Amino acid sequence: MTWETIEIAGKICRIAAADSPVCVLIQPTGEHEQAHLTEEAGQILQHASCEALFVSFPIADWDQELSPWHARQAFGEESFGSGAGATLQWILEKLLPALRSQLHLPENIPYILGGYSLAGLFSLWAAYQTDVFAAVAACSPSVWIDGWAEYAALYRPKTPHIYLSLGTKEHKTRNPLLRTVKERITEQEELLRQGGVDTVLEWNTGNHFQENAARTAKGFLWCIKQVEEC
């Protein structure tokens, strides 16, 4: 696997290219994830049922750029920001047109958005904002964030296939916010099913900080399969 880098509207994007991709995988990636990105992309490209183009773009301020609204964090006094809207706008108005133009992609190629932790919540939130994404992989998403349960109960996503996952020990903590994550993710799955969304909730062994790359790869692989079967 070889990586290419392309600058798009001020962001250095990393791309694992395929000869004839039939779908495009998009992942917002923090600095803490860069070391394992090759492992993740390798698993995806090796096990995918069809050729996929993997695109990672950098997130400079994780807590500000991926949160849909201001909310308290699980740790520390600084709150989450509300930059998810601007990040999604950059994807739709800058990233996707540039990929189509520079890589000569078909106009109707399906896009799959995914991420881990707060990037998983961002991906899940994006599924409610636009029908551009054929599938979304929300891996260990931060559904414990204040206001998310109420938001998910009020609105329906516009993405037809949504993957959810969580570690079996993620809720086993003294932190009152994080303790709710198991209940929140099972509620999320039920809401999606009631809304007619093709979804799955996969339980991974361990806590939030184990095998993040492998877990995210599994999410993308499920999405690829669902999109390919459509």
TrEMBL record:
Gene3D superfamilies: alpha/beta hydrolase. InterPro entries: AB_hydrolase_fold, Esterase-like. It comes from the Bacteria. This is Esterase. It comes from Ruminococcus callidus ATCC 27760.
